[in-house]
Design brief:
mainly alpha, two-stranded antiparallel sheet
Length: about 140
């Protein structure tokens, strides 16, 4: 269901963002790096959730699906370990990026307001950090 809900290049867009948010790319925490005229520019992760994002909305689509999947996981409707095996690296990185986005709301984090089930899944520790997951991309 997850892969069928994505557009054709969404995983490729995630891979680009995965690499551009790394320290190796020179990204600061909460930012990604793009090259413009051979110059590295740091842009905030919040740009991924604004109009006209550089990933064509791929990360936002993934976050929305992860929120839906998380709701089902929290209600014991899915096998958490199987879901994590298939999507763990994607879930972990998207969750990490969402946590780093500064909220325009004074009392709640961006992830709490926009993706409450996804946030709660990680807060309730229903995912064991020692579980193995499929690797979509590596840094290096």
């Amino acid at each position: 269901m997850f892969k069928e809900s994505l557009l054709e290049n969404d995983i490729q867009e995630w891979k680009k963002m995965f690499h551009s948010t790394s320290e190796i790319a020179g990204a600061k925490k909460g930012f990604y790096v793009i090259l413009i005229n051979r110059q590295r520019i740091q842009l905030p992760l919040s740009n991924l959730f604004a109009e006209g994002p550089p990933d064509h909305g791929a990360i936002k689509r993934m976050a929305e699906l992860f929120d839906l999947i998380s709701y089902q996981m929290l209600n014991n409707k899915l096998d958490n370990r199987l879901i994590y095996f298939q999507l763990g690296q994607l879930m972990n990185t998207v969750h990490s990026w969402l946590e780093k986005i500064e909220s325009p709301y004074s009392d709640q984090a961006f992830i709490e307001v926009n993706y409450p089930s996804f946030n709660r899944l990680y807060q309730t520790s229903l995912i064991d950090k020692d579980w193995v997951c499929r690797t979509y991309a590596v840094i290096g």
